[in-house]
TrEMBL record:
Sequence similarity: Belongs to the UPF0201 family.
Stretches assigned to coiled coil: none
Alphabetized InterPro entries for the sequence: PAB1135-like, Ribosomal_uL5_dom_sf
Protein name: UPF0201 protein C7391_0536
Source species of the chain: Methanimicrococcus blatticola
PANTHER family the UniProt entry points to: UPF0201 PROTEIN TK1335 (PTHR39652)
Source domain of life: Archaea
Length: 170
């Protein structure tokens, strides 16, 4: 079975008061979790803002650059693992569904930047003063996005997944 095509982006604004290396490490930790060091993808640092920042509540005036890693569904394997390790399947499902845009083809979720720096996954309840690491998933159709969300965060019963899709089943 062919895997769905999707664009996956992890990004975080780097504010003037922040160390770009630490912000880059937070982005890298989320995108590369579980990958061998030799296969890790380093973030690109883009001067100023990127179009995706228009979708979030941030102080564009104080952003000096944006740390960004782009890829496909394979970038989500670490998040898939962390959602289970942290036992936050239902919380993550709510975040992905609440972050879905009107087209139904795209979702944008905030991840706690401090937790990401420590290789933990946490979805902040509110806007964070120092910003977040963001995960954006863009699929070709609403059904494709729902299938990706279902793979990341399957239905649960008492916190245990009712079923688990494999990545190659997407």
């Amino acid at each position: 079975m062919n895997m769905l095509n999707a664009k996956v982006t992890f990004f975080a604004p780097v504010y003037r008061t922040e160390d770009p290396e630490k912000v880059g490490a937070a982005v890298s930790n989320m995108a590369n979790f579980g990958r061998p060091k030799s296969e890790e993808i380093r973030p690109d640092f883009i001067s100023g803002t990127i179009p995706a920042l228009d979708k979030i509540d941030c102080d564009g005036e104080n952003i000096k650059q944006t740390a960004c890693i782009n890829g496909n569904l394979e970038l989500l394997s670490g998040i898939h693992y962390l959602i289970r390790k942290e036992e936050i399947i239902d919380t993550a499902n709510t975040a992905f569904k609440n972050g879905t845009d009107e087209s139904g083809c795209q979702t944008l979720v905030a991840l706690n930047k401090q937790a990401a720096l420590m290789k933990h996954l946490s979805f902040p309840a509110d806007v964070e003063p120092l910003g977040s690491v963001y995960l954006e998933i863009e699929a070709e159709t609403p059904d494709a996005l729902l299938k990706i969300i279902d793979w990341l965060t399957p239905p649960t019963k008492e916190g245990i997944p009712v079923y688990e899709l494999k990545m190659n089943e997407l």
